[in-house]
Amino acid sequence: MNSKNKLKATLLVAAGALLLGITTAQPNNANAAVTTAATSSKTTKTSTAKVSTKHYDAQITAPKSMASGYQIYSNVPGVKNTSGTPTTVTSGSKYNNKYVRVMQSQKSGSATYAQIRYNGKILGWMNANGLTKVSFRAVAQATMQQYDAIGSVLVSHNKSLTPTVVSNGYANMLHSTKNASDGTTVYPLASLQNGMTGVIIQKLINAKELTPTTKLSRFYPQIAHSKKITIQQLLTMTSGIKGTVKEPSDQLKEDDAYTNAIKSLTSTGKTSFKYSDINYVLLAGIIAKVTGKTYTQNLQSRILNKLGMKNTFIVNDVQPTISAIKAVSYNLNGSSDYQNSQSISYPALSGLPGAGNVLTTPTDYYKFVIGLQNNKLLTPKSYQKLTSYSKKYSGGMYVNQKGVKSNTGTYTDTGYSTGYYASDGNQHVTITFLNQSPLKNNMTPAKFAQKMNNVATYY
């Protein structure tokens, strides 16, 4: 071996001895935590398992052996807390059987923990053994049953997916006809029709046949204060007109319906918000006067035909030809369903052109809701105008929630109610058609529609 090789060998041996000494005296960083955790009773093992961000719906189901259910942690047990906030523990018992959205999952030792969200609020991390995966349909159906909501509901939680339709109870208990949205049963639309009337008015404004400042006196000068009442005020329920349309004894022609509405109203001259369907009945009359065609003809050609709403029917002096069952109205009396049965009369419907003379299904009405924002009815600019005439109610819908349009409807002294919510862009849509009221647990139909919208938004 020459001198160079001897020198190399000497250096390698020395380096190896040095490394061996270090290794024996001090563990490297990769093993330090494990060695320390194993030899110290004061240190807890920590996990560095990857987080799964897969979302799914679940029901909290406590095992029989755990009456109080699994606990909910602010951080994953056994995983290093890097949040800077102390780890807290709360009982999950009050959420037993509730439906939640799993936002992410992480392993810790032999257990898997899931971060759960309930109605938009992050609760924390729970052992995944306390969760049972469920479908979105199951969540929607369970919500209907929880409040004994009799009717049919459409919920869309993702605009790229087919909407989910769930129904509960009977449309006609006497004939054992169940509620449905497939066209076999139709429901009175009530005030949700206002949006359709608003669209036609906006089309006439776009065509310069009307303006938002056009006066009511141009069409109905006999109404008090009509020289000061504008189209915009009718659209926003700030016309000072109040009252309820008197129910006629026979089915009315449109002109007779407008006359009946005028006889039913009181014009106060005030400009504060006051909801009255008569505003939209008058708008329907204005549509007929401006176009020279009936409101029925305008609605059919401008909206129903354009959107393919084949299960939607207009009621006027001629009874519509429909093969579907018209849902019967019921009341909940204590714990007894299907009390005080009655059916909305055709004369009553005929008295509300523009504001409640339509029979339809949640699925058909969904076509209209989607059509509002997908350029089939209005351009984005026109839709923005229609919904901006007021900060509370504009164009047939409430606009006072950021990013959401909504409306509800009822028929006086009946169990019928309707409601809808739609987020901007239609990412989340909810349509509720009920034929019994009230609901269980002091839930109003309007609040129930909001509950179902929570399902569409957070699950």
UniProtKB/TrEMBL annotation:
Instruction: Give the InterPro entries listed for this entry.
Output: AmpC-like, Beta-lactam-related, Beta-lactam/transpept-like, GW_dom, GW_dom_sf
Q: Name one GO cellular component term.
A: membrane
Q: Enumerate the Pfam families for this protein.
A: Beta-lactamase, GW
Location in or out of the cell: Membrane
Q: Any keyword Transferase?
A: no
- Which UniProt keyword terms apply here? Membrane, Signal
PROSITE patterns found in the cross-reference section: GW
Q: Which Gene3D superfamilies match?
A: 2.30.30.170, DD-peptidase/beta-lactamase superfamily (3.40.710.10)
What name appears for this protein in its UniProt entry? Uncharacterized protein
Q: What is the lineage of its organism?
A: Bacteria, Bacillati, Bacillota, Bacilli, Lactobacillales
